[in-house]
Amino acid sequence: MARIASEQPRKQRKARYTAPSHVRTKFLNAPLSDALKEQYKKKTLRVVKGDTVKVTRGDFAGSEGVVDGVDTAKSKIIVHGVSSTKADGTEVPRAIDPSNVQLTKLKLDDKRRVAKLGEA
Asked: For the whole model, what pTM was predicted?
């Protein structure tokens, strides 16, 4: 996560909510599974659309799915199969914080992402 100088919670929240987009992308890191940690020698990696993740916290803990979308403005991700039912019966996707998931399979179509993983 990006370093925030103050210890005060209100200033930490303000820094997080008003952060520019290039800093906000660092809030979208998720821990890697044990196998991926050994392979790439990294603990966390930014989540992208197409990655496979396992939910580790919350109501959907244990469920696994592909990332359908990444919301950089809210620092949340949408996982396939994780949804809530509205009062009228319709299913809506439920946004999850990236810290509450674990990356199990990476989408390696992006050459820059593969190069960054190779540096480690």
From this structure: 0.86
